[in-house]
Design a protein that fits this description.
- Helix 1 crosses helix 2.
- The protein has 8 helices and 6 strands.
- It has about 220 residues and is of the alpha/beta class.
Length: about 220
Amino acid sequence: MNVITLASCKAGSGKTTLAAQLAGHAVAQSLRCLVVDADPKGGFALLNSRRVEGALPLASAERGLERPLEVADFLGYDWVLIDTAPAISLAVQEAIRVATMLIIPARPGFLDLAAVRETAELVQSGRRPYAVVLNAAPLKCDDKEAQTVADTRAALDRYAIPVWSGQISERTGFASAAGEADARALAVAEIARLWSMIERSVEAVNAARTGAGGQRQAA
């Protein structure tokens, strides 16, 4: 079972919305995907209850992550997405510890950089693979990134923080530029590309773990 934790020390990074988009894409691909709401404020549960396409499989981490993860594994879920609170806490540290991979959503611009660095340091201490995903980014123009996106990438590169090569664009911009139907198609395509990156990364992580386990047994 693959566990993807979405973490950010900053509120408003779009973490909960991104978790819903990723889970919705996975379910649409007939993958068994469960979302665990580990934010005490229950933001994902509220969003899920209003989802037009129907509620996604959801569990609460009110009493910790161990039980919902055990149940998810027993029920045969392939993927679990954990939506965490925008803070540094024991619950967030536990969500990092159990993750196969972590996603750190961040809005482009220098206001989010400090929070990204703080979150990255927390993730690095847990020794888990991770990537920053630039979220609610300005639309590309002639396939060229907005300057604020390019500047954010350059700043994170200086700190050796891995950033996904794509972006999740601001939906209002899509709607005004392409119309609602086309906007949805463009947004779905971005999420599909992000999910593909996650799948490839998790496959590499699992292969490395299997190889390391084989080497230990051979020794």
